[in-house]
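=== Discrete structure encoding ===
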Amino acid sequence: MPRLITAIVAAALALALLEIRDRLGCPSVDTPACPRISMLLGAGVPAWLPAVPAAAEEASQAQAEQAYQRGAKALDERQWEKDPALRGEAARQLGLMGAEAQLWEIYQAEADPAVKKDILQALFLGGKGEKLVEVARTDRDAKLRLAAIRNLGLAGKRWGEQLVSIYDADQDKSIRTAVIHALFLQSNVQPLIAIARKEANPELKREAVQKLSLMRSKEATEFMMELLNK
């Protein structure tokens, strides 16, 4: 529980810093607070703990009060539990700051599937594909596994090998279809050709071939010509 509370505090501080930044009008205004806030947002969670009050002092009393009201709302666990939109927004901000450990703590404790999807997107935004792979392989909720696979597709070719591994290990048709779509999003031709060659399920084979027909690559064109000449 203490680690989860730390994650919630981190999310609240992120929201408070962003609120202060927005109300000051950064970066268009000339005030010492703006570069300080930018530095804190880039530095990560440990640097925020003592520094939010100092940043708020640069704002007017009304601005600081409004920022802290938002932060306090997030820190109130009862409100946190009641407001999935707040949790989702905090997750997105933490993702942009690369706070993977905090996001993962919140994900494991979260019960709302919609918020969990927001956290998966936040992990993608933060470039943290390892946890997405873990969710895609092991989560009990098929919809969350599908969401993780889609985000791996958006994350680029470097996750192609992991997607192929998921495809080979999971016989679920919807999961395999999602992997095909993810490889297409990556413009990852070779794994799609391999799937089209070896897949016994005609629907999945057709899905892979259809995606290859949309890809502008020499390998995809050669494979399509090979099919036509059979």
